[in-house]
Amino acid sequence: MSYRRPYGTVACQGRNDVHNVAGCRILLLRFCVTVPDTGVGPSGDLAHGNGADMGGSGPVWSVTIAVIAALVLSDYVFSVRRSHRPTLREAAAWSAIYFAIAIAFGAAVWAFGGLSMSIQYFACYVSNEALSIDNLFVFLFIVSSFAVPRIAQQKVLLFGIVLALTARTGFIFIGAALITIFDWAFYLFGILLLIMATNIAKPPESKGPQTDTVVIRTARRLVHTSDNYDGDRLFTVEDGRRVMTPMLLVMIAIGGADVLFAFDSIPAMFGLTQNVYVVFSATALSLLGLRQLYFLIDGLLDRLVYLSYGLAVILAFIGVNLILQALHVNNVPVINGGNPVPVAELSTTTSLAVIVAVLLVTTVASLLSPRGRAQHAVAGARRHATEYLNPNYQTDAAEQEKLFTRLLSEEGEISALPAKYRAKIRREAELMELLGQAHQAHDEHQAG
């Protein structure tokens, strides 16, 4: 892959030279209001610069944003507005629709932007989708911690994801401005991804992500909410007063949690392409499919025991690739005297192949792993017992009985676990007490 800086400019090094400052301003102004020369050759390949490329004209951006807004609106009108419990069939259908839209968009990018740009898009989409699966674990924890009723989860997830998409768009443009203006930004992003990879690979030591974050504590002080839900309504009436339900806090928690994931996903996207349009569109389409994916693989999340290792490998791979790109076009004075360093380069096609291969291996290994099946049973029993004991979660008697039946099945799986897996159950005494409470509640319900 060959790299060059857009417009033939030099990077701004932050010196006090008047001409250099003026050059910085011109470079940033051009980045914000024009479409750089992408260097598309006869083969349709994109020659990247060591800087960001808006990747599309104003009308192209306008149409894309309008399409994304239309997708959000249709998602709300046809699925979320009508309060209901999503079925597996419905989640599968909507997931297939969003997946088809993402593929069709990639085909359009191929038709109008060339094969190289299309490969970049698919590499970004697959990477962001894989990293987003890690988000689902956090979403699941937040929804369980706030005891969100099943009927309200669709609305919570949709609005939380829209908040996250809005924030991530800002991060994308900030990242693009950084790599356009500062030569060292690629090194920074590469090191950041390597640190993130190390953190993801570490086994969790706590009970789970914290929901009592600074954002939530601030929101609780500013927004006085009820402790009770009223279906999927944002407001309800208690003691003759109109009060807000906890729905808004959950939306803020989900949106805030997803924003934190932008600190690894956005640098990872720029490690695959410097085309801002590709990064934005891939991020938007992968995020919009998260709500459907959440309900589709809800029961399988806990089985993906090796996913974190796969994501760590992907982030480390992209981080190393970013550093290699930076070395190849280096002009940072403290590195090799400001001269480029002859290093190996990896094409976007190779990156895409590595990402897909790592995901396939970790997913298959997780699904076949006895450890994955054990973790799935334990986590499912813990979650379903908590849901069964929560009167707001499921008000329909038939659905409540189905939930208890699933709990019984998971208890049977736990009882049949080999001793070495039973010994690895965290907080086993707490789990057994929770299951006992669920059984007691069920007996009282049957007696009543």
Number of strand segments:
2
Q: What distance separates the N and C termini?
A: 72 Å
The average pLDDT value, as a whole number, equals 76
Estimated share of beta-strand residues: under 5%
N-to-C series of helices and strands: HHHHHHHEEHHHHHHHHH
Main beta-sheet strand count, sense and barrel state? 2 strands, antiparallel
Structural Rg: 24 Å
Helix and strand composition category: mainly alpha
Integer tally of domains: 1
* Count of individual helical segments: 16
Uncertain spans, ≥5 residues at pLDDT below 50? Answer: 1-49
What's the assembly state of these chains?
single chain
Q: Which overall shape is indicated by the principal axes computed on the Cα atoms?
A: globular
Main sheet: strand order: 1-2
Please give the share of residues in helix.
Answer: 55-70%
Give me a quick take on this structure.
The chain has helices at residues 18-33, 58-80, 88-113, 115-145, 153-181, 185-201, 214-222, 247-272, 276-288, 290-296, 307-328, 348-368, 370-389, 397-415, 419-422, 428-447, and strands at 235-238, 241-244. The chain is mainly alpha-helical and 448 residues long. It has a two-stranded antiparallel ribbon.
